[in-house]
Specification:
CATH class of the largest domain in chain A: Alpha Beta
Oligomer: homodimer
Structural class of chain A: alpha/beta
CATH architecture of the largest domain in chain A: 2-Layer Sandwich
Number of strands of chain A: 16
Helix content of chain A: 25-40%
């Protein structure tokens, strides 16, 4: 039997464990599911004969080290900042490791040690980062093998609500960490390249410079730019590319409406509002509007936003019950972003049985034999309910597949890495298709940003 | 003879030295003017019999300590971050000290030592901070002595160009550190209180939430909120006040036009623009606009700003030669704010003979014997040319006066302090009147923010 230690029994771990348990007899796998909260681990172990659940606090070195020693491979599904505790044990006890998180500096520092010991430390193998890397590199490598030169790469991902449950005015519900949604785009101007020119968008304009994206069978989406589109430029080998843009997808209209919160200052996460605990939703809104002894909060709001009462923007605000003077926020020393999140969670939390959706869209522009061409590639994954969410599937499945392939020696190049090599992305993308996670490609004329110059 | 050591022969030091040298015979003063650049010190010493100029690098402890030991009092006109080097010597060698800068944490830590040694460390005694403290506290204390209760305090200061030289479309020229003007308001939301309600304005809205202020004889001004209006709330004894607002004054229309730069992201000081050195003014502007193969930078700009060609906003941009494709910025690894500053300095630098102006305006609302009243108090100081600027006078004179009064024992309360006590502000405000720095008061009905409820 081979032992797999899975640490962290959070939202995405269920699908991952399912995958491995279903293969456990055939593949001779024993799973140890570890969580700070034993009940979470027990729930996932499903009383399966090849699973056991244990309590594990990642900051308790005794238990952690013991469990790592017993394992053949370790999967860390902990919040990203905790991986390093596990990773250092893995170096020490010579175990392979898999995470779905961005490679931290601390993690990167283990690269030499991992190589020296022949260990695979696979990271960024969830959905975004993860499936985006794999699906993009597969096309980019194919274009290059044919002798093509990359001109443009744009990549968009969105975590949204499935069409059948898309029933509010925002066409949006929280399907993952709400905090990341509320603070998205903060911390500096968005930076990207268009036709060889560096472009910058300040945070307060981010949600007004969107692009449209049409996905066959799913209609139209919009995307706003990620903060750093250039992060993977050299990793993907795109140093000379003319256009490089990464973005986040929403349904059309979301960004324009979200921009109201940005403009008012409600998404700020850098200071605490005085007396936040006792404030009503209405008080919160009023903090960002000028004082008036006579005008209502509603009128001040419409005036500041320059919208009329019959504007759909106004309906979107009303839907959130934003002007309620009786509902209290109830958070102590909270930032505007935290208070806004609380208000939004009332409206945007998935109800029992509601399904989520992951959408990914890549555009590849290239030149081959003097001709300019474009490939568009898209993937839509729908959730199957509260446990098998699209997010859990697209994060959990590639992690599980990578872990098994490492265990079986199919992935063996050592070091701290991300899945950008054909030997990794080809088998995993192929297997993901069995689970309905499939990219559809279409060739289109090269549009780029200079359609008239063709 | 009493020895005064003046360190830092910058813009405001000339007026300060003038003041002291004119009194040097009568008051038995010897001045040592020290600067990193000896020529600056020599220029200010005017070959006066009671002045000597020396070269002094504040980070050379040998020279610094020797000079501090020789002095009876030390005036530091260095950039604020360097005062602490001098202040520690002053504690060690038991010398009084004066600066025009905000009290830093490091400076505050010397308070106990200063008190123990009977030393006066007077800070924030320039114009803003300085004359604002003194002129405000004089009225606030008077209201309280009469039994009044403070309801409202609003305070505004602006460094502007004198009306006779106010000849550009922005009604603005740099009269002090341009960098502070370009980055004004950044680093977090502006916070203040209106009628007992905390209000917050995000940076990107700061220049659209202005107030008008009329100054008799000088017409109308506007003000935008300072980042932290509540900084002196407890120091001024205004913990229960209903309205507390501090702002920066500009001529009407400046803020609306400045907001164009803010909206585009041109004032951002947190990241460097790629290839800044080789960019033209036009390239700089284009970095913040969407790519287009056909549309001109001008048209994109008007579209993003939603203005027409005959809008005065557009004329303001044209006046700055912002779309010039031949003028290079020439700064390496520069932030947007640094690049914008460079462009503005072309247009907004005072020419030989042009004069500046300092404007200050306070509103005091209070209740006395069941009646609500308001006092408005304003001061305008005009520069007398390049050396006797309004900024140099309003910063240099109170510093010089404070130094002499400390030397003469008229100000003697020891410790790290700011000028908020009657024993300090009364004599200094009185003497400032001899130099034309005079507040004009008027009683008005209490307006506050609830005029209809009276």
């Amino acid at each position: 039997m081979r032992h797999i230690l899975v640490i962290g029994a959070g939202k995405s771990t269920g699908v991952l464990v399912d995958y491995l348990l279903k293969k456990s007899s055939k593949e001779n796998l024993k799973l140890t599911i570890a969580d700070k909260n034993l009940e979470n681990a027990i729930a996932l172990s499903q009383n399966h004969e090849n699973a056991r659940a244990i309590q594990l606090d990642v900051f308790n070195p005794e238990v952690r080290e013991k469990q790592v020693q017993l394992a053949d491979i370790v999967i860390s599904m902990l919040p990203a900042r905790f991986h390093i505790e596990v990773a250092r044990d893995c170096v020490r006890f010579k175990k392979n490791m898999v995470t779905a998180s961005y490679v931290s500096e601390q993690m990167q520092e283990l690269h030499e040690d991992a190589v020296k010991n022949g260990l695979v430390f696979m990271n960024e193998i969830g959905v975004d980062p993860g499936i985006d890397h794999m699906s993009a590199m597969q096309v980019i490598d194919r274009i290059r093998e044919r002798g093509g030169k990359m001109l443009l790469f744009e990549s968009f991902t969105g975590g949204l609500v499935a069409p059948e449950d898309d029933n509010n005015l925002w066409n949006y519900k929280f399907t993952w960490n709400p905090r990341n949604v509320v603070t998205a785009g903060q911390g500096g101007a968005a930076k990207f390249i268009q036709e060889g020119q560096y472009k910058y968008i300040p945070y307060h304009k981010l949600f007004r410079r969107t692009e449209f994206i049409d996905v066959k069978g799913y209609g139209r989406f919009e995307a706003y730019a990620n903060r750093n589109s250039l992060k993977y430029r050299s990793v993907y080998g795109l140093n000379d590319i003319l256009t490089l843009y990464r973005g986040t997808m929403r349904r059309v209209g979301f960004s324009k409406a979200w921009n109201m919160f940005v403009q008012l200052g409600m998404t700020d996460d850098t200071y605490a509002i005085e007396g936040s605990q006792d404030m009503s939703y209405r008080d919160f809104v009023n903090s960002f509007l000028p004082y008036s002894p006579t005008d209502s909060v509603e009128l001040k709001m419409r005036h500041v936003l320059k919208i009329d009462q019959d504007d759909i923007m106004w309906d979107k605000l009303m839907e959130l019950d934003l002007f309620n003077a009786h509902k209290k926020i109830g958070l102590v020393d909270a930032t505007p972003a935290q208070m806004l999140q609380k208000i939004l969670e009332d409206s945007w939390t998935l109800k029992e049985g509601e399904k989520d959706m992951i959408v990914m869209y890549h555009k590849f522009g290239y030149e081959i034999n003097g001709e300019r061409k474009q490939i568009d590639s898209s993937m839509v994954c729908l959730g199957d309910g509260m446990l098998q969410t699209a997010m859990a599937k697209t994060v959990g499945l590639p992690v599980a597949m990578a872990a098994l392939k490492i265990l079986n020696g199919a992935i063996k190049e050592p070091g701290v890495q991300i899945p950008i090599k054909a030997s990794i992305y080809n088998p995993i993308l192929e297997e993901l298709e069995d689970y309905g996670i499939r990219f559809r490609e279409s060739e289109t004329p090269y549009l780029g940003y200079n359609p008239l110059s063709l």
